[in-house]
Amino acid sequence: MPESAACRVCGGVVVAFMDFGKQPISDCFLPPESTAPEHFYRLVVGACESCTMVQLLHEVPRERMFHDHYPYHSSGSARMREHFRGVAEHFIGTELAGDDAFIVELGCNDGVMLATVAEAGIRHLGVEPSGSVADVTAARGIRVRKDFFEEETARAILAEDGRAAVIYAANTLCHIPYLDSVLRGVRELLAPDGVFVFEDPYFADIVRQTSFDQMYDEHFYYFTARSVAELARRHDLDLVGVERLPVHGGEVRYTLARAGARERAAAVAELLAEEAAAELTARHTLDGFRDRVLKARDDLTALLRDLRSQGKDVVGYGATAKSATVLNYCGIGPELIAYVTDTTPAKQGRLTPGSHIPVVPHQSFADDGPHYAVLFAWNHAEEIMAKEQAFRDAGGRWIRYVPGVRVD
């Protein structure tokens, strides 16, 4: 019998469909000299038989993931900087066009979106629990509160700043197991005609692409329009808008409003119908996804072993959080991948979590000229390919594993 648990949204039965086994904290890159034991947990993913919400069955304490040394900065990608500038400009021209409008961003990271809002002179507040990135945000002149957002936080913000015309979150809501408290906080803080807008990886795209590395400790939920509509309804909110986004391997931007406050856009019904036709959480769909993941695991490890047996130099590109799932589920260590190159200073000179592959600066990749590079940062492939033309010109080849294993 598959493992099961109670749904964190509706209390229904969540039945597991994918077990990645023992996994480390995905963004915990280790100093080589560290003797402290790593924290591991079981990465098991299931779907609720009632509200259809896809979620992890085992929760990692939030303080272990989002802490004072959290290494991810949203501003690291030129494409994402442009994306968030567009988000800010859209809000400035619409929801924030009124007098004394106020926007709150949950999980604002290094302030990449709010910077544009602040430059426009609009009242704003970022809520960011990771101290190191919150300090970067504050240094940019952006108001930031070092905290996790929940009902109590919302009350404190309301008392100081009043109601928000917009509450926004990007790649944040899916990280939060305690959504009931978050949604109660949203209702507390949101203006009567305000909107709660969030964008996160889309489960349909994960299934379609077999992008199994989107499943790791920080991603507790995997949203669809149907599961978000069910979540909203339980908190007297309506799903009134959806927009497909071509970032991070496929996301959806969801817009929620107070029940009855806004008309539902036609795009919502269209996406709900697409999801129903695709039977996203039907057992045969989930079993098919699992089978494709197993094949990708076996194909990738077989390819790497073959290349190493031929004496080929194989490295990794992008010490991403999601690469932890790939490396540990596939049993890939430094014997198969010599190192992983990354431009994030906080990760350089450390070891990848669980698999203990050295992380090196980008200059090492440029100087060494390896034969093959596994593209862990595949969601930024277009930007990376343009940047690394010299690697291809020298005969280097990319190894991809989404949607299946191939050599480019």
Automatic annotation (TrEMBL):
The protein, known as: Class I SAM-dependent methyltransferase
Matching InterPro entries: Methyltransf_Zn-bd_dom_put, Methyltransf_Zn-bd_dom_put_sf, MeTrfase_14, SAM-dependent_MTases_sf
Domain Methyltransferase putative zinc binding: 7-66
Keywords: Methyltransferase, Transferase
Source organism, top-level taxon: Bacteria
GO biological process terms on file: methylation
Pfam families xref list: Methyltransf_13 (PF08421), Methyltransf_14 (PF08484), Methyltransf_23 (PF13489)
Limits of the C-methyltransferase domain: 246-403
A single GO molecular function term of this UniProt record: methyltransferase activity
